[in-house]
Amino acid sequence: MDPSTSSDITLDINGEKHALLVDHRTTLLDALRERLDLTGTKKGCDQGQCGACTVLIDGQRAVSCLQLAVAAEGRHITTIEGMAEGGQLHPVQQAFLDLDGYQCGYCTPGQICSAVAMLDEHAAGWPSAVTGDVRTEAAPPELTPEEIRERMSGNLCRCGAYVQIVEAVTRAAAERTGTRPDGIAEKPADPATEVSA
Amino acid sequence: MTTATTGTTPPAEGAHGSPHTRVEGPEKVTGTARYAGDVPFAELAYGWLALSTVARGRVRPVDTASVLAMPGVLAVLHHGNAPHVNTDYAGMLGPPDPTIAVFQNDRVPHRGWPVALVVAETSEQAREAAEALVVEYEEEPHDVAFDAGRPDAYAPGGPEKPDVAEKGDLAAQLASSAAVVDEEYTTPEEHHSPMEPHAATARWEGGRLELVDSNQGSAWIVNELAKLFSLDPSSVRVRSEHVGGAFGSKGVRAHQVAAVMAATVLQRPVRVVLTRRQMFTLTGYRSPTAQRVRLGADADGRLRALEHDSLSLTSTVHEFVEPSAGVARVMYDATAHRTANRLVRLDVPTPTFMRAPGEAPGSFALESALDELAEQCGLDPIELRARNEPETGPVSGLPFSTRNVLACFREGADRFGWAERDPRPGIRREGHLLIGTGTAAASFPSRAIPSTAAVTAEQDGGFTVRITAADVGTGARTALALVAADALGVPTDQVRVRIGDSDFGQAMIAGGSMGTRSWAWAVTAAARDLREQLALGGSVPPEGITVRSDTAAAIGALTETERHAYGAQFAEVAVDTATGEVRVRRMLGIFAAGRIVNPLTARGQLVGGMIWGISMALHEEAARDDASGATVGADFAGYHVAANADVPHVEADWVTDVDPDDPVGIKGIGEIGIVGAAAAIANAVWHATGVRHRHLPIRPDRILRAEEDRAGARRG
């Protein structure tokens, strides 16, 4: 590749370093998908409107289609492939699975990454457009369905799984603040009975 | 938490009827499920389509020299050099839409039509080269203006078989009616917009053409590609393991044809993925409609006259009808009954099937008109529908297999709190919000298409089902595992279902709410035969014991009947008279849709359909610019589909409704959820504001203008 239009970079993804030569035009999304075979991050619109390509950059959610790969050097990137730890699904992943928070599954990696970061944003006291009291000294707002809908609206789901997505995020949020402070959900023995209960 | 269970469905025996999470769910939540554009290939080349910038005309000879000299560019295909394809055939849906036969001549039939494919080593190189390619046109005047008064509208099907059904003397019955509704309703151009853009990778492997694709039926795609490229169908293999939504848009499209051409010319794998913007002109859409409904009734609401006339558009090169008038042929009878679908041909892309084609826009018009008639007669809208329940098919005269629409209304009214509703419009105010509720009926045909399946008893005690089904998000893979387990009498985890590979044989596509019904029939037939064979005893050889089924004879032997799914939709809205914003506060849909195989995923599909109804009622509208012939704002900013914050708690449930003629009792649930949903919301907006909104979507400016008109009338 022409050195005037390409660069050697190292990307830190899911705790692993990846050295690669990239065309300067390459987005972070395309670098993940086409160069590193991390295809869990999806391309839905390639222009920052759908959220399917959401990843975490230094812990905050970002649409990877609007980031150039060269600009992501030195940042900690977490993709859907890095959400499960030690073979154990992240509580948000488990809740999407158990409560059917998806249909075709294409927006799902972005929804899950977005939800994980959103729960952190909420815990840090960030308000949303529907938060009543936005003073900095106010307590974090209760994570109502209305708050979740607003905070998850950057991730489109054309199948219309929003109701189940809100249910899944609600459960994951409750687990985070509830009985298991380590944030790891107990895997239900039978997801089917969990749902019909 | 709301559950997927229901109080009205009796507990089912065996595996199906119990909620089950998706068998491919762990892959989908961890990002390891590979969709068409995710499958890696060595030596992969990237194709990028260049689209026409005029709506009608001819492409001048394309000068490719400067683009071929750009870094990484491998080929530029256009009408001057592309391989020939054959379009003189009839496939599953009839003759192919000529707009998929790219680069065959210099004619441009619509704006945004492929005029070239640039192939390069990387997608960045291909994209830049495609944008650099200069294509010149001999532009001709175009016409893309759709409206109800088009003098060139015609009845499709030709003079022998026009799409018109009529009986009785309409004028006479209208003249003798105590109550008459005569209104025009319109719906705009709507786009499927699945989250996964269309993607296909083509390659030649061992003398066979292989396509890794995202489609609604891999056997269907094989048949079409084989005919287009004059190949033996056995020398084409199409795989489509995971599909990121389809909704009618994922059949044979220009990008697959272009990918096959490029792979053939270059003899290496070529992937063509559409951009979101390209999807607006290359993957079909729902035609706008202009519908006139005339209802005449006695004072007690019994219909004497019903006319539903719908105009839709198609391209200049292919006839596709959005059959919106068809819903009246199922739902309501009248002494005089006339339904007609008409078309106008314009310089636009060919529209296609989109979730509940016909029923979705048709039910908006018809169910809105019923609500207007109920108002005129001073009747409850549900009572009006009860008084007009037909004994037999209004047009066919055939008996109904099961028709449980009133059971849906009863259950829904009870759970929604309909009995407490004050019918008067425009009287419930919360600050600057006006509150209202509305209801509408739903119906969608239940059909089955012959399919083949294979079920194998493996030596390790497990079972493998092979069928060319497609799971476009419906949960088909999981449903078929439950169905097979039930027929085999084994636990679900002993059954492995393999789908999305044309080598598994002919099968119905995921479409028309027919997929799961058609596939489950074939899987059940093979599994039952296998179970009988195994019951005879003996050991399973290393290659297993495989039984194949073909449902052609069984489906051919079905007696003709009116077989449909039904539903009752309920909505509550709040209309902000200051901003014009309509928000749906809650929705409930009760359906009679045959046997529900997996309540967990069925609920998702039905609720998803209802959310499409919210989106259709309030948001979706593709605007076409008359001057350029292009869609304005062809992206998710210009074309808004319902986002999470647009959607309240939506509930779906069902009543017992088992089809007696189907071995599994399935009717199909892919489309019934959207039918009637927009009408229920529009009727709720009337109940809130006292103003009828007959044009979708019900945008803030339409609400505000209606409020201004009303204020002006009061002052007047």
- What is the spatial order of strands in the main beta sheet of chain A? 2-1-5-3-4
CATH architecture of the largest domain in chain A: Orthogonal Bundle
Largest interface: A-B, 69 and 74 residues
Largest sheet of chain B: 7 strands, mixed
The total count of strands of chain A amounts to 5
At the fourth level of CATH, the homologous superfamily of the domain at 2-33 and 449-554 in chain B is: Aldehyde oxidase/xanthine dehydrogenase, molybdopterin binding domain
Note the overall shape of chain B. Answer: globular
Overall radius of gyration of chain A: 18 Å
How many helices of chain A? 6
Rg of chain B (CA only) = 26 Å
Average pLDDT, all residues of chain A: 90
Average pLDDT of chain B, to the nearest integer? 95
Question: Which structural class should the secondary elements of chain B be placed in?
Answer: alpha+beta
Total helices of chain B: the number is: 17
- Report the helical percentage of chain B: 25-40%
Q: Uncertain segments of chain B of ≥5 residues (pLDDT<50)?
A: 1-13
GO molecular function (chain A): 2 iron, 2 sulfur cluster binding; metal ion binding; oxidoreductase activity, acting on the aldehyde or oxo group of donors
Protein name (chain A): (2Fe-2S)-binding protein
Pathway (chain A): Alkaloid degradation; nicotine degradation
Pfam families (chain A): Fer2, Fer2_2
